[in-house]
Automatic annotation (TrEMBL):
Its EC number is 6.3.3.2. NCBIfam families: MTHFS_bact. InterPro entries: FTHF_cligase (IPR002698), FTHF_cligase-like_sf (IPR024185), NagB/RpiA_transferase-like (IPR037171). Keywords: ATP-binding, Ligase, Magnesium, Metal-binding, Nucleotide-binding. This is 5-formyltetrahydrofolate cyclo-ligase. Belongs to the 5-formyltetrahydrofolate cyclo-ligase family. One of its GO terms (molecular function) is 5-formyltetrahydrofolate cyclo-ligase activity. It comes from Streptococcus sciuri. The keyword Nucleotide-binding applies. Its cofactor is Mg(2+). It comes from the Bacteria. Gene3D superfamilies: NagB/RpiA/CoA transferase-like. Pfam families: 5-FTHF_cyc-lig.
Length: 175
């Protein structure tokens, strides 16, 4: 099956996900991440501000700040370019796609990031992912030596053949 077909099918499932079940799974996934050595051993973590149909990242962001970690979120540019900037709740701007990004253009150096929480729509057993189709994360993760994790719902596990430019996530938490 083509990536676009898989993407559309699973996004529809994510949107239709029962809200009570989703909230319970989000809480379990949050605890899975917080208990992981990947999180525990990290000082600088990058995540994203989630859409309502994705794993809710705001509780992760808030806990990481309480834990004294530096939290970064992505800022995107044309032609698939992405940087990570520091998360500051009062310094976010909304993009034309409805996402919130750092207002600042200041990029955090890739080699200073310990942990990247990677979004995605579908993940195969080897940790390869189908994202939203723009290729931002595959480009950014090229040459990244830190830890990568993702948090997904069980129905987002999907058997597909990865492409040579795809980069696997090291640890996928599933609920």
């Amino acid at each position: 099956m083509e990536k676009n077909v898989i993407r559309k099918m699973l996004i529809a499932k994510m949107i239709a996900h029962d809200k009570v079940v989703k909230a319970r799974r989000d809480e379990q996934l949050l605890w899975d991440v917080l208990r992981s050595s990947a999180y525990q051993d990290s000082q600088v973590i990058a995540t994203y501000l989630s859409f309502s149909h994705e794993f809710a990242t705001l509780p992760l962001i808030k806990q990481a700040l309480v834990d004294g970690k530096t939290v970064l979120i992505p800022k995107t540019y044309p032609k698939g370019r992405m940087i990570f900037g520091e998360y500051k709740e009062d310094e976010l701007i909304q993009t034309n796609r409805g996402l919130f990004e750092p207002e600042s253009e200041k990029a955090f150096s890739k080699d200073k990031i310990d942990f990247i929480h990677v979004p995605g729509v579908a993940f195969n057993e080897k940790g390869f992912r189908i994202g939203y189709g723009a290729g931002y994360y595959d480009r950014y993760l090229t040459g990244f030596s830190g830890t990568t994790v993702s948090t997904i719902y069980d129905f987002q596990r999907y058997d597909f053949e990865e492409e040579k430019h795809d980069i696997a996530v090291r640890e996928v938490f599933v609920r």
